[in-house]
Structure formats: C-alpha cells, structure tokens
TrEMBL record:
Pfam families: GNAT_like, Hydrolase_6, Hydrolase_like. This is HAD-IIA family hydrolase. The keyword Nucleotidyltransferase does not apply. NCBIfam families: HAD-SF-IIA (TIGR01460). PANTHER family: 4-NITROPHENYLPHOSPHATASE-RELATED, D-GLYCEROL 3-PHOSPHATE PHOSPHATASE. GO terms for molecular function: hydrolase activity. Keywords: Hydrolase. SUPFAM superfamilies: HAD-like. Residues 275-330 form the GCN5-related N-acetyltransferase-like domain. InterPro entries: GNAT-like, HAD-like_sf, HAD-SF_hydro_IIA, HAD_sf.
Amino acid sequence: MAGGYDQVIFDLDGVVYLIDKPIPGAVEAVETLRGRGTAVAYATNNASRRAAEVAALLTGMGVPAEPAEVLNSAGAAAALLAGKLPAGSPVLVVGADALRDEVTEAGLTPVQTLEDEPVAVVQGYGPDVGWRILAEAVLAVRGGALWVATNTDRTLPSPRGPLPGNGSLVAVLRTALDREPDVVVGKPEPALFTTAAAQAGARRPLVVGDRLDTDIQGAVTAGLDSLLVLTGVSSPADLLAAELHRRPAFVAADLSGLFRPANEASVPLDAPEADGWRVTRDGHKATLDGAGDPVVALRLLCAATWDGVPLTGLEPASDAARELLNSWGL
C-alpha cells in the first residue's frame, strides 16, 4: 500500500502510541518508510504538547521524528489567533502549558481571568483543566471574546480505554453558553493535512488514523486517501455504520497493513466471499458465514452496510461469525 504514496501522515494517539508507549509495530513502520525514502509527518489534535516535545517523545520511543514533521492543533490555533488579533492581545488560555507557550510565541499575551479583559478564548486539552478556568472562559465568551477550540475529540485513547478529550471539555462551555465555538482548528478540518503535504512537497499523501470523525473525515475533506487502523478509538462497528464523509479507502488491524498489497485492505470488499468468509445478502439482511481474518470479514460486511443493510440486519451463520459479531458489540 505505502508504495503508492509519496508521504504518510500519521495521527499519533491510538496510531503510533497510547499515552507514552509505542503501539506494537509503529517503530518498525516508520523506519521502513524512511528507509524507502517516503516522507513522514505527524498530525495531532492533542494540544497538550508542543511540536518539539512531541518529536522528543517519539524519538525517545524509538520513532524518529523532527519538530518540523509534527503539526499540532495548539500551534495552528495560536497562528490563527495571531492572524486575527493585534500583537500583544490578551487571550484566555484553557489547556496545558504547551498551548500557553504557543500563544506567547505567536506574539499574544496569555491570561487566566476575565479581569484581564481577554479578547479571545483558546481551548485545548489539558489534564489539569478544572472548573475555575472553565468558568472564566464562559464569562469571557459571554462578554464577546472570540472562542477558538483546538479540536473537539470527545475522547482520548489510553491503555485503560477511552478517556475524556478536549471535546468533552468544550461540551462544558457549549452547555453553559448554548452555542458552538467560533472556530475549531484541528481535524476534521483539513488544514493540518494540507500543511503537512505542502511542507514536504508531497503530491500523493496517505493519511493514517484511528478516528473516523477526525482523521478520516479530515482526509476525505482534504481529498486524500486514508487508512483506518483498529488500534485506537473507532471500532469495527463504527466503520460499518460510517457515513459517506467518514469512509476510509483502506482498513487494517494495525500499521503492518501499510506494507501489504493495497487490494488486501481496500474497503469495501465488494465480493460474495474471501479468505474463508462468505456474506449472503437478502434484502435488508446480510449473513456472515465461515471463518478467517476478522478484517476481511469487516471489509465484506462494509459492502453490505454501506449499501443499506442496517447493523441490526447482520446475522451470523457459523460459530466464528457469531463470536466475531459479538466481539464487535453486534
């Protein structure tokens, strides 16, 4: 698959690492791409680390990375504000120190209270964000400040399961204000991807992500092919139910899919059977029979569900099929 592209743009959380540990195969995947001369970039919605910190974290895990290869929503949000506001403007920062540093470097003044008369609020993920700063942000936005969210990911992947992400914190303000942010900077907006491609001079980039609602939708919006890996947030059931603007070109269990033939990962797989699996369609029902690679079964079933079969219309006809559908929560 990777041989058909001149750049691979990776999401990070759930694709390359979980919190602070590399996902099995990630180091080898990046090393193989670099050895082939394929450009690599990292595009993340996580605003809790600056690009240099992300690059250092990756390098410490054995994944080679340069700061210039990392594009994050914190830097993008600060750059957007710098383009809209006079130099030195006070900006109330809700998030981690990395976001505060980006705002400072962009020539703006980070503040913490309504009394500082902020003209904008920028909100990004931070593990220590609490009620007090959220309350100040509500007051500032209600008073007329521009509200910029770095991203709206509802959850963050972790070894213990999904945890609240910036989208959950944005929901606090949304509920209190009864309105949406003025601007959402990160994925699914396409800017991180298009910037990464432009910096590398890539003509045919491939986006690799674990979330349909950010990584894959952003790639579709940008007109780029994408690979969904099942090591993070989005599940097989999510893919089966995906709307048109959230459908990837490929799906794989993990990053090893990059180095297999593209036609072994393309989705949907529009065939009656493959690799020991067979799907029989009858109106609004589809029956899965046989046994084999779960990803092949997923690709076969996507052909049915994306053509109108509801998830409730999927039925097993073998023990392996029943076990697989159960494991997907179906």
